[in-house]
Amino acid sequence: MTKSKKNNFDYKKIFSMKNKKVVIFGGTGNLGLNFSQTLSSAGAKVFLLDKNKKEINNKNIIFQKCNVDLKKNISNNLNKIIKKEKKLDVLIYNVYSKPKNYYQGFEKYNLNTWEKVLKTNLTGAFLSCQLMINHFKKKEISGNIIIVLSTYGIVGPDLSIYENLANKKNIYGGKYSLTTPVSYASTKSGLLGLMKYLATTYGKFGIRANSLTPGGIYDFQEKKFVKKYIRKVPLGRMANWSDYNGSILFLASDASKYMSGSNLIIDGGWTAW
């Protein structure tokens, strides 16, 4: 009888981020901060690039001010990190903007607002990924790109859950009530296409690209909205910020080393209907 080989599976090793260098664009929001703390606790050195400064009491999480609307700004920031660290392993793009008139309805949606959101959400991702791809190839690194999407980038929004909400209770600001703007849904959908393009084009170099699609996150929104939203979630609740810690560690680590071109959906079942 042939003896079966011993399974030497080490879950700590495959999820380890030891000696890994991670760059997060859009890193100082709640989701980005959770990502950075999770990856840092797994051993990574994390660089947060964001236009909004955040004081962080962790020597392995470094903030750098960066405006992704400008290619020169992105390039200067990345080159500064590369010069010091020699190599980067993971890029996480987690940026979206909410300029003036962001929550306006489609029929009167402002073109200037549309273009600003497109520039930040999609063009910024294109520029960031382009620079990182060149870095990965030059250094012959099996790099890893993770783009954060939204359920409204893969399915159409149900605008009925936003009906009759009070504009004064929109916690994200502006003179309009909470809704899903056309600019948000369109750019998040575009990011899915960008991710798949990168995965199929650069897989031969050992470079991976995947996306993470979070569902709606509870952030003290209007009670009427929350009640309507969770009716569509099979798990019966909105997400907490920490619900995505495990998924970002999976995507960033060797636990997903044979995964590329995939969209990991963590939405409580929202898109299962």
Question: How are the secondary structure elements laid out?
Answer:
Blueprint: H1 11-14, E1 21-25, H2 30-41, E2 45-50, E3 61-65, H3 71-85, E4 90-93, H4 111-139, E5 144-148, H5 182-202, E6 208-214, H6 223-230, H7 245-252, E7 263-266
Parallel strand pairs: 1-2, 1-4, 2-3, 4-5, 5-6, 6-7
Instruction: Please give the count of helices.
Output: 7
Which structural category fits the helices and strands?
alpha/beta
Shape: globular
| Topology order in helix (H) and strand (E) letters | HEHEEHEHEHEHHE
Instruction: Let me know the largest β-sheet.
Output: 7 strands, parallel
Strand content: 5-15%
Find the CATH topology. Rossmann fold
Low-confidence spans: pLDDT under 50, at least 5 residues? Answer: none
Key attributes of the depicted protein:
about 270 residues, alpha/beta, Rossmann fold, seven-stranded parallel sheet, 7 helices, 7 strands, about 35% helix, about 15% strand
Q: Briefly, what is this?
A:
A seven-stranded parallel sheet has the order 3-2-1-4-5-6-7, with helices on both faces. The mean pLDDT is about 95. It has helices at about 10-15, 30-40, 70-85, 110-140, 180-200, 225-230, 245-250; strands at about 20-25, 45-50, 60-65, 90-95, 145-150, 210-215, 265.
Describe the protein.
This protein is an alpha/beta fold. The protein has a single domain, classed as Rossmann fold. It contains seven helices and seven strands, in the order αβαββαβαβαβααβ. It has a seven-stranded parallel β-sheet with strand order 3-2-1-4-5-6-7, with helices on both faces. Helix 4 (111-139) runs parallel beside helix 5. The N and C termini lie far apart (49 Å). The model has no long low-confidence stretch (mean pLDDT 94).
